[in-house]
């Protein structure tokens, strides 16, 4: 668990981070979002003491971070950056095995761990182990970066715009992989990004920052439903907020059972997001879709009218609350 | 995928390993031939200086002069490398950063001093012989090493150093395993410049009584004997070429071993 209370950082006269409070529970994925220079990266770097804070307290598992030696602390915290920071003179395998080697694991253990991580991240050992970073594509290099961060099985993972430099297709692929990885490994993740879609897709806890302060934090859904001000609303996509919210829920949570009416000829998989379903409705001029499972067997129906009615109800209850 | 395949071909591991050492070896052999062969080439030099009493320098055998010459350059190089690389490392650390401009300026100052002037100043203090010339070579050879050490270390990308720190490497580990290996080709280039310049400069030592390959040159100038001058100059030139191509091979080799990352 990571806890920041009243944490500030001044660089000279400039306040980069201004008395922020943040709590990331164990196994949760926290995304810090904001425009450039809002202090999100500084916040991240204060956690592994790459930057020492000016005031406030940071606790890891209840212990103040000063209780840890900075070098040992960093070996326990994974760190991924946008430019990967891989060592260009080391092979992929050696790069990944860095922290275990620093921790003086045995050669066999290191080798086994490197192999395990490479298969976890979809990097075939024979093909990539002996390559050098400059021989990798951006996506492959960032996979190596993530593998290196995970090498010593840290509880905490800090990621500073890890996918910011990748092309959109690779970025989405790696986001999906990270989400799948997180579902398996349950690390405590603090993830910095300026891409709201990325944050909405991955985060359990969303933190919006501006000028060193936290403007709003909460679950992605709660922010989408009730942004506190125009800044947060614009970050969340303004008029497209409805679609972003739809992207967070699955078709299977909104479908009704197959009725007596003739089923729609247009189909959508139950695991798709509501946003994708709405897109299919627009594309195919259909206000009803047949929901199918992975074997293409119809299991329900999704109707536009019902979705709208649900949203109305939701809005009603959220107003009351 | 295709571009990574072509890139891999550019870095052919261990291919042409032998080719690395052919050029320095060739120059080295030529050097040996000259050192051993000049005393037998009297006819040739006689043709150059028909009126001289002697045409082959004989006050000391050439191999002894060569040995002493290399010793002087070598001793100066060892100290210069230790001081130069050490200073370069020291002023790029957090604590020494304030001294960076000072060290950079001192090193350039060392090179603006003509070695002859250093000799003139050093002789009254250190006496005649080998010490003053080593002193002069050290001062003269410091700049390229300091400058390249600084450039090499500063060229290492900030993100790589940040990542190293964030992974929990200690400052010493970062220096040894990341910064120095990445800066090595540039530092080696500085050492190469320094040593190659000093091979020629060391000949000045003959003016203050350090016996080396400068002896035949100075003696030749004094006696108006071109044959002596050519003998000394020829061996010095070949020595410089041998060492320079040796450094060149080392550099190529180092770059390859460092994975030929694009720079």
From TrEMBL, chain A:
Keywords of this entry: ATP-binding, Nucleotide-binding
UniProt name for this protein: ABC transporter ATP-binding protein
Keyword check for ATP-binding: yes
Organism of provenance: Vreelandella aquamarina
UniProtKB/TrEMBL annotation, chain B:
Domain of life of the native organism: Bacteria
Protein's name according to its UniProt entry: ABC transporter permease
Taxonomy of the source species: Bacteria, Pseudomonadati, Pseudomonadota, Gammaproteobacteria, Oceanospirillales
């Amino acid at each position: 668990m990571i806890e920041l209370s009243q944490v500030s950082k001044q660089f000279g006269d400039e306040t980069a981070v201004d008395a922020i409070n943040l709590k990331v529970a164990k196994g949760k994925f926290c995304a810090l979002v904001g425009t450039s220079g809002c202090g999100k990266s500084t916040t991240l770097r204060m956690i592994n003491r790459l930057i020492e804070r000016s005031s406030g307290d940071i606790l890891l598992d209840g212990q103040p971070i000063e209780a840890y030696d900075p070098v040992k602390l960093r070996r326990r915290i994974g760190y991924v950056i946008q430019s990967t920071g891989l060592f260009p003179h080391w092979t992929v395998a050696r790069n990944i095995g860095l922290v275990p080697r620093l921790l003086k694991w045995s050669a066999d253990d290191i080798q086994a761990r490197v192999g395990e991580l490479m298969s976890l991240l979809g990097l075939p050992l024979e093909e990539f182990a002996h390559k050098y970073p400059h021989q990798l594509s951006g996506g492959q290099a960032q996979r190596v970066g993530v593998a290196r961060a995970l090498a010593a099985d840290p509880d905490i993972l800090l990621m500073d715009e890890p996918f910011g430099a990748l092309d959109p297709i690779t970025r989405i692929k790696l986001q999906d992989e990270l989400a799948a990885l997180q579902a398996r490994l349950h690390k405590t993740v603090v993830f910095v990004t300026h891409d709201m879609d990325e944050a909405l897709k991955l985060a359990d806890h969303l933190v919006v920052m501006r000028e060193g302060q936290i403007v709003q934090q909460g679950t992605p859904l709660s922010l989408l439903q009730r942004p506190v001000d125009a800044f947060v609303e614009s970050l969340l996509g303004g008029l497209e907020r409805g679609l972003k919210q739809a992207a967070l829920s699955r078709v299977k949570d909104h479908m009704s059972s197959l009725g007596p009416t003739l089923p729609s000829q247009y189909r959508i998989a139950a695991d798709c997001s509501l946003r994708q379903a709405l897109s299919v409705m627009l594309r195919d001029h259909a206000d009803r879709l047949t929901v199918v499972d992975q074997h293409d067997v119809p299991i329900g129906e999704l109707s536009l009218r019902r979705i709208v009615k649900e949203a109305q109800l939701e809005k009603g209850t959220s107003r009351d609350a | 995928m295709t571009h990574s395949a072509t890139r891999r071909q550019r870095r052919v591991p261990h291919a042409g390993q032998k080719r690395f050492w052919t050029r320095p070896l060739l120059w080295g052999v030529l050097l040996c031939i000259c050192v051993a062969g000049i005393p037998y080439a009297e006819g040739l030099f006689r043709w150059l200086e028909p009126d001289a009493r002697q045409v082959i320098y004989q006050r000391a055998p050439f191999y002894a002069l060569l040995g002493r010459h290399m010793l002087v350059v070598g001793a100066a190089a060892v100290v210069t490398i230790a001081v130069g690389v050490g200073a370069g490392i020291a002023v790029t650390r957090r604590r020494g950063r304030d001294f960076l401009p000072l060290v950079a300026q001192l090193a350039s100052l060392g090179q603006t001093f003509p070695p002859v002037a250093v000799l003139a100043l050093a002789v009254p203090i250190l006496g005649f012989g080998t010490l003053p010339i080593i002193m002069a070579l050290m001062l003269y050879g410091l700049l390229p090493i300091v400058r390249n050490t600084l450039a090499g270390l500063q060229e290492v990308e900030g993100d790589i150093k940040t990542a190293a720190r964030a992974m929990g490497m200690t400052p010493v580990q970062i220096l040894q395993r990341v910064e120095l290996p990445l800066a090595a080709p540039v530092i080696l280039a500085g050492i190469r410049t320094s040593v190659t310049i000093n091979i020629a400069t060391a000949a000045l030592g003959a003016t203050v009584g350090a016996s080396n390959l400068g002896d035949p040159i100075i003696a030749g100038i004094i006696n108006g004997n071109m044959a002596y001058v050519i003998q000394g100059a020829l061996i010095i030139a070949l020595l410089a070429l041998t060492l320079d191509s040796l450094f060149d091979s080392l550099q190529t080799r180092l770059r390859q071993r460092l994975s030929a990352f694009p720079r």
